[in-house]
Amino acid sequence: MRVLWRWSILLALVVSGCGLQAATTPGAAGKVEVRLGFFPNLTHATALYGMAKGMFEARLGESNATLRSTIFNAGPDAVEALFAGALDATYIGPGPTINAFARSHGEAVRVVSGATSGGAFLVVRSGIDSPADLRGTRLATPQLGNTQDIALRAWLADQGYHTDLQGTGDVSILPQSNAQTVEALRAGEIDGAWIPEPYATQAITSAGVHVLVDERDLWPDGRYVTTQLIVRAAFLHEHPDLVSALLAAQVEANDAVNGDAAAAQQVVAQELKSISGVDIDLQILRTAWGNLVFTNDPIASSLLESATRAEQLGLLHQVSLDGLYDLDPLNEVLAAAGESPVPQP
How many angstroms separate the CA atoms of 59 and 45, rounded? Predict the structure, then answer.
């Protein structure tokens, strides 16, 4: 079963003070129903492929569980769903992961796997050729406090620009969905955006924008976490077998995505169409695909650096991230598959 999630201000107010005691819900015939979130972004290709091929359902079925999947536009909404007890696990970026861990004083979530590295860009209109041209411009990100939002704000600060959470400052930052951003770029309503694939390539192809910043250039060896798999800590404690099932599907999907990219692109394109109702140009998808690396390694060092950036921007109070990662289940799954372990942070 799949649902689309839409959040209200009221819900955000409710969950801001809620506890974290919610558990998985019983499904048909007493089976546990596992709630898994993901986004309709190419940076979530592992999840999209695994969903389309029934890998998550099959692995959970082996553990007498069922699957309910939920689609989100950006990480902060997924975190609110998790806090409200509507999710057990989600594919998500590092920024919202850090926020969830900090808000819950380290109690809410654990990172159990990576999924994707790369695939985020600052694209801008014609006439903007350097950071010096950005003063007074309007740029978009998927959501306030999401991974791309933090990356943009940190980069602008490095260029000497002031931004604030109200969308004013030297550069205005407008939160909106990725699809809306592409349309806004086409219409000339904004000057640029820090967005993930395939929206960056769509914008380059159809809106006449160009890349000002490839985020890979900001990280050692071009490696940084874009998407990872997190679970509720209570879910991990109560259902380690189901977490292992999710991880087995994750590893299986990444092996398939890396093993036959052309076939995987067809599957992911069809899955994106089934979600959005819009045909995905395969040439755009292939181009965007080349900007991504699908990896089970969550590249913890990049998340820790993102946390430092969020603190400096005032988006996060200083927080210890000790205990955020639990990669033992992933490495057990990898060992069973005859694959190399990922490094512990």
Answer: 18
What 8-state DSSP symbol labels residue 338?
T
What pLDDT does residue 87 have? 96
Asked if 41 and 178 count as a contact pair (C-beta separation under 8 A), the reply is yes
Distance separating alpha carbons of residues 307 and 190, to the nearest angstrom = 28
118, β-bridge pairs: 292
CB burial class (10 A; 0-12, 13-18, 19+) of residue 188?
A: exposed
Gap between the Cα atoms of 309 and 175, Å rounded: 19
* Residues 114, 300 contacting (CB under 8 angstroms): no
For residue 35, give the 3-state DSSP assignment.
strand
Q: Are 113 and 299 in contact (CB under 8 A)?
A: no
Residue 19 token pair = 């506890």
Residue 78: its pLDDT value, please? 92
Q: Where on the phi/psi map is residue 54: left (φ > 0), alpha (ψ -120 to 50), or beta?
A: left
Give the 3-state secondary structure of residue 295: coil
Domain 120-222, CATH class in plain words: alpha beta
Per the rule left: phi > 0, alpha: psi between -120 and 50, beta: everything else, 160 is left
Residue intervals in the chain for CATH 3.40.190.10: 2-117+223-336, 120-222
Nearest by Cα to 40 from 283, 334, 271, 278: 271
Residue whose structure tokens are 């602008």:
156
* Between 126 and 312, residue with greater pLDDT: 126
Examine the pLDDT at 23 and tell me if it is beyond 90. no
Q: Predicted confidence band at 15 (pLDDT cuts at 50, 70, 90)?
A: very low
Structure confidence by residue, pLDDT tens digits, 325-341 = 999 999 999 999 999 99
Q: What is the CATH number of domain 2-117+223-336?
A: 3.40.190.10
Q: What is the pTM of this model?
A: 0.84
Q: How far apart are CA 159 and CA 48, in angstroms?
A: 36
Using CA atoms, how far apart are residues 81 and 91, in angstroms rounded to an integer? Answer: 13
Taking only the tens place, the pLDDT of each residue in 101-132 is 988 999 999 999 999 999 999 999 999 999 99
In Å, what is the CA distance from 242 to each residue of 35, 48, 67, 88?
11, 19, 11, 10
